[in-house]
Amino acid sequence: MSLNDLFTEIILDHYQHPHNHGLISSPSHFSRGFNESCGDDIQISLLVEKDIIVDVKFSGAGCSISQASASIMTDIVRGKSVDQIKTLAGKFYDMVKGNEANPDEDLGDAVALQGVAKFPVRVKCATLAWHTLEEALKQQK
Amino acid sequence: MSLNDLFTEIILDHYQHPHNHGLISSPSHFSRGFNESCGDDIQISLLVEKDIIVDVKFSGAGCSISQASASIMTDIVRGKSVDQIKTLAGKFYDMVKGNEANPDEDLGDAVALQGVAKFPVRVKCATLAWHTLEEALKQQK
Amino acid sequence: MIRNHIKSDFPIFSYWESRGKPLVYLDSAATTQKPLRVISKVEEYYSQFNANVHRGTYELSQIATDIYEEARSKVARFINGLQPESVIFTRNATESLNLVAYAWGLNNLKEGDEVILSEMEHHSNLVPWHIIARHTGAVLKFIRMNHDYQLDLDSLRQILTAKTKAVSVVHVSNVLGTINPVKEITAIAHDAGAISIVDGAQSAPHIPVDVQDIGCDFYAFSGHKMCGPTGIGGLYGKYDLLEKMEPFLGGGEMINEVFPTTSNYAKPPYKFEAGTPNISGAIGLQAAIEYIEDLGLKNIEEHEVALGDYAAQRLAEVEGIRIFRPHATGTGVISFTIDNVHPHDISTILDAEGIAIRAGHHCAQPLMRKLQVQSTARASFYLYNDRSDVETLARALEKAVAIFSPRKKANVLK
Amino acid sequence: MIRNHIKSDFPIFSYWESRGKPLVYLDSAATTQKPLRVISKVEEYYSQFNANVHRGTYELSQIATDIYEEARSKVARFINGLQPESVIFTRNATESLNLVAYAWGLNNLKEGDEVILSEMEHHSNLVPWHIIARHTGAVLKFIRMNHDYQLDLDSLRQILTAKTKAVSVVHVSNVLGTINPVKEITAIAHDAGAISIVDGAQSAPHIPVDVQDIGCDFYAFSGHKMCGPTGIGGLYGKYDLLEKMEPFLGGGEMINEVFPTTSNYAKPPYKFEAGTPNISGAIGLQAAIEYIEDLGLKNIEEHEVALGDYAAQRLAEVEGIRIFRPHATGTGVISFTIDNVHPHDISTILDAEGIAIRAGHHCAQPLMRKLQVQSTARASFYLYNDRSDVETLARALEKAVAIFSPRKKANVLK
Ligand SMILES: Cc1ncc(COP(=O)(O)O)c(C=O)c1O
Ligand SMILES: Cc1ncc(COP(=O)(O)O)c(C=O)c1O
Asked: Could you give all domains of chain A from N- to C-terminal order, each with its CATH number?
């Protein structure tokens, strides 16, 4: 396993300069997720209108993988429908768990996280944002 | 280890025909002892006058060793002083634990229990009556 | 069919054989012997993969976590639990039952509520309820046992009331070998709105168990009674019930967030596994289950019942013997007494011949009183026993009778 | 002095060495590696002497009981407990602390009573008290920590009141390595009529411990953190206190007489050991203690302090590092953060070099908040570590800094 595959330029970039960071002032959905094992903490706030994500922000603290994954995710999901997100999340989990060698192009920048598959201890970090997003969508506010 | 050394004629005799079996009607001292491991249960009632055991009886149920040891003990301790009993008990423990190859003659018939030293799992059975006696003497009634 | 020479899978038999003192081990209801496969697995873990689980952020810890969680999945499949997360690792069946009594009982029982047990329970399914009853004011009631040593389900129906909150019974009795109809008992309990708890310490090792088919809410068992290491056991619980429950032990692993004076908890099973678990124990237990499954639980059961039947028949020839074994559901456990020979003396005489049986109350004092005995002798068979063990046992019992019958004694003692 | 080549006592190091991935194990505060001597002892037990303890009436069971009880005596002598009977075998330090919280706390605390903990406790000495406080209405208070990561005893004196019933503190912090003055704390607690409880999970393995000298009422520790097997730990308690206490878990072994709805209990330590114990674990723990004693605890302590001091000095050279280690009582535990490199990322980068350290909250979330960090990285040294391990660590940390510093990154990644 090479660290190069994990700490890619894109990851470090999103980590050091996260996109969509903060809280939406009146979100329609919100959830907070933890990784007990390493202390990652991510809050996701959403504005969903007619089943479409019109706005999304994240805040929290954690390692480069969890934060970069959240930052990238917010970029990707904006404008997508709730159903599309379900599919996307599934593709993302498959990729980082190494179940899928050729990640779907819908994943966009998230393919930068493909290297996580070689670092099983970091899978939880990569998926935290996505799980928290799915939780938020479940919780009608 | 030979079973002959354990189940001697004297032991079997005391087991099948115990001496001083029963309860003293108005004892000055009383105690009940258990062996959790095998269910032995012995009750000892005493009449002590001027520091001398003038009467002693035992009842209860248990294996041959525990019952025979109680029966023999009641024979030996009658007429002895409380101090003498302490010494005797100590000698008895030494004998059944194998700490003393040549048991003291004061132990009388109790030397029939010498073989117990070769059966470590039975030591508790042999000492139960004596421990219960010592407990009874501690408890002022 | 259990294959011949199976004893050679268990190093302890060759050890004593090689010392000229072959071991006839008939105390498997207390604890079983361990096959080499289990012993080696534990050794391998410590020599190659030892690290703490769950909290680690490096590869070795991930390996340890993976094999620990694989063991959990194995246990869940073994008893047909719906999901791995419904299995909590504990020290033994006793701790599993205490976990239920404390975590469920302390928070769900109030004064006057009733918990139903049975007349043939092991102390492990009695004393925890005594403690919780003292704290909560709950009342304990008992399913009666009939003359064939079976639980009387009518008596269960009679004592059930609207206040009954739990019915907790032993699956297979460690004294009588009775297999209780836990599926029916569970259905009766559920009809009355009570939860059902099964003490499986003597079923998991010996008969196929399907917790979904039984339908019980909790099922407790011990690893050391099924070829596994000491110090590991399990509690299966229905997941939604586990989710709703308060935790039992507090500490590392079982939490989500901890503040100075409050905390919130992780999901089951972690919520119930505080502190560093017995990792090597869990891994050894998996190896034990694999060993048992390779032999086949149906085969093990048949083997034991056949030995039990044969022993019941052969031992009936011993003078003055009284056997406590149901006609309806006999297994590989035989408790007995012999007139004029105390169980402890029987055990000593057998021990001199290299035969290990148990004498005592078998942690079931109320049952002893019900049987009107102070103690019994008990031979319990497992997959590694065979008919020659029964023969050796029977002959030694005849010797015991002779020793305590003065008329015969002279002829037997050398 | 610890002898050279001590790593060869531990099979796991040769295993990874032989696979071309030498293991630099710096997570001994989580769990330690096991010497061959301990692994073999467990194997020997299962291959030669395995039987259930205490209840047996045959020789094999007597042997098992004797070696189990010998292990108890060994533990008692190791911490200079007055008598073997004051040592209770548990699964781990967490269970030991829960035992005290439940068995002592549930029965001795009432609404408004106070329990004093400290700001540097492990969750294992926090969450059990949260649970008991919820059941009893007792109140938790905290000894403050000063700027050198030491407990401030004045703050203890200030918060002590007539309602304080117990003071429970960690002996050696698993995050900071601080050695707390538990003897003084115990004296202060006793003066106020409170009992004193010491969490010794990180002291028993690393420094000489004398519970009589400390004077504490309870002392908890884990076997797996001191070269012993997983699944075994201990609780030392003053015997008269243990005698007066209600039991914790109910079941076999811990009773005297059991009736359907009541029971009375055996003497300590048996009163607190319900069910079949982790026999092989206790025996393995004895072997671990013998191993440690052969090396000498004073030597182990010196070795670790020297490594810790060296590491503190060497790591201080790493850019952006912040080390959380008291000047007054540094040990072999070093927690740190590095600016702009998250502990979890540090751990992954180190892992790629075969270095196992821990990253996270170390089961001490309130302490993390006090330190104003979310998590730290932690290297913890034990008897088998040496200066070359520190060197490897320091160089890998420099690499981590470089990876996260774009300007340097190109030069370090191959
Ligand atoms: C200070 C301290 N207390 C308690 C514990 C709990 O130990 P265990 O997980 O073995 O119960 C630990 C170890 O994690 C510790 O470091
Ligand atoms: C029926 C039954 N329940 C519970 C137990 C307790 O098992 P353990 O001692 O492993 O906790 C036993 C074994 O002694 C048993 O036979």
From this structure: 3-138 (3.90.1010.10)
CA C102 to chain centre: 20
Report which bound ligand comes closest to the CA of C177.
2
Task: Assign C407 a pLDDT band (cuts: 50, 70, 90).
Answer: low
Q: Which residues of B make CB contacts under 8 Å with D?
A: 34, 36-38, 120-121
For residue B110, give how far its alpha carbon lies from the nearest alpha carbon of chain D (Å).
23
Q: Is the distance from the beta carbon of residue D252 to the nearest atom of ligand 2 less than 6 Å?
A: yes
CA distance C138 to C129: 9
Closest residue in C to B2 (Cα–Cα): C352
Choosing from D29, D151, D363, D390, the catalytic residue is: D363
Contact C342 B63 (CB under 8 A): yes
Residues in chain C: 414
User: Is the pLDDT assigned to residue C414 strictly greater than 60?
Assistant: no
Residues with Cβ within 8 Å of C126's Cβ and at least 6 positions away in sequence, in order, are: C117, C366, D250, D258, D260, D263
D48 interfacial to chain C (CB closer than 8 Å): yes
Indicate the SS3 state at residue A136.
Answer: helix
Could you tell me what percent of chain C has a pLDDT over 70?
A: 98
**Mean pLDDT in order along chain D per 10 residues (414 residues):** 93 97 98 98 98 88 96 98 97 98 97 98 98 97 97 98 98 98 98 98 98 98 98 98 97 89 93 97 98 97 97 97 92 96 96 96 95 96 98 97 75 51
**Amino acid at position D158, single letter:** Q
Domain boundaries, chain C: 6-30+296-412, 38-293
Top CATH class of C38-293 equals alpha beta
Query: What is the CATH class of C6-30+296-412?
Result: alpha beta
Number of B/D CB contacts below 8 angstroms equals: 19
Ligand 2 nearest atom to the CA of residue C172, by list position? 1
pLDDT digit string, tens, across residues D352-401: 999 999 999 999 999 999 999 999 999 999 999 999 999 999 999 999 99
Which residue puts its alpha carbon closest to atom 15 of ligand 1? D201
In the annotation, is D227 catalytic? no
pLDDT tens digits, one per residue of C249-307: 999 889 888 899 989 999 999 999 999 999 999 999 999 999 999 999 999 999 999 99
Region C211-229: mean pLDDT is 98
ipTM of the complex: 0.94
The pTM is what?
0.95
- Return all residues near C48 (Cβ < 8 A) that are at least 6 apart: D11, D12, D15
* CA–CA–CA angle D330, D335, D341 (5° rounding): 150
Contact C275/D91, CB-based, under 8 Å?
A: yes
* Of C62, C256, C257, Cβ closest to residue A121: C62
**Residue B21 forms beta bridges with which residues?**
B58
Beta-sheet strands, E only, within C81-203: 87-90, 114-118, 139-143, 164-170, 195-199
